[in-house]
Design goal:
Length: about 240
């Protein structure tokens, strides 16, 4: 019979194992090492990580809640596919939420919030100049979530988190193209106008800058699509 101490240690190990599996699978999904639509087998993952199925199940549940994994009707788990035809809907959702949290941040931000936003942007810029694209997308997400925290609306922040995660996958599709098109200084300066509007407490301007930020993201992706994925496709007039 297992002692209380052993039970506690096993429970702690399971939680830590689940967190590691979650973080590793999330990284592989966001960096496209695990492809859109790829099947995730619970038993195979448990074997690969050297853990029981329970922490794998916990990790998968968290990824499902973030929209990165989908459970099909037959209970098969797959990496959530990204349908190109749904990109306009994604942009519409991102634009609305991004404008809302940025506007609210300009209204409600505190001095501590401003420091957090600026520190997150500095961390992002460091990764930009290092050329570490995987870390760059993480720092970019943390920057925008710092703005969401300043907005003070947990419902918007939770949905924004999911949208930003999907945006990371889209960014990884176009990584090489982006780095050829934009110098590090240009990539990093995308945030300057957002920060300035929030610091000044200018809600309308913050809303407008957030909208322009979304349009820039959209423009980069569509240009990438036209020059890379669609170049060999015959389009109807």
């Amino acid at each position: 019979m297992m002692s209380k101490k052993d039970e506690k240690e096993e429970g702690t190990g399971r939680r830590h194992g689940g967190r590691y599996i979650y973080e590793e699978l999330r990284r592989q999904i966001l960096t496209l090492q695990l492809k859109h639509g790829e099947q995730l087998d619970e038993i195979s993952l448990a074997t690969a990580f050297g853990l029981s199925r329970s922490p794998v199940r916990d990790a998968m549940a968290r990824l499902v809640s973030e929209g990165l994994v989908t459970i099909l009707p037959n209970r098969t788990a797959i990496v959530t596919p990204f349908a190109i035809e749904e990109f306009p809907d994604y942009i519409t959702a991102l634009d609305l939420v991004q404008r809302a949290v940025t506007r609210l941040a300009a209204i409600h931000r505190s001095d501590d919030d401003i420091r957090d936003i600026e520190a997150a942007n500095e961390a992002y810029m460091e990764m930009v100049y290092k050329g570490d694209f995987s870390a760059m997308t993480e720092r970019n997400k943390e920057f925008h979530l710092a703005i969401a925290r300043a907005a003070g609306n947990n419902y918007l922040a939770a949905y924004y988190d999911k949208l930003l995660s999907e945006g990371q996958r889209i960014q990884h599709l176009q990584f090489d193209f982006m780095t050829r098109q934009d110098a590090p200084s240009k990539l990093g300066r995308d945030h300057d106008d957002l920060i300035a509007a929030i610091k000044a407490g200018e809600a309308e301007n913050a809303d407008r800058m957030a909208h322009e930020h979304t349009l820039l993201f959209q423009s980069r992706f569509l240009t990438f699509m036209q020059r890379n994925l669609l170049k060999d496709m015959k389009l109807n007039d």
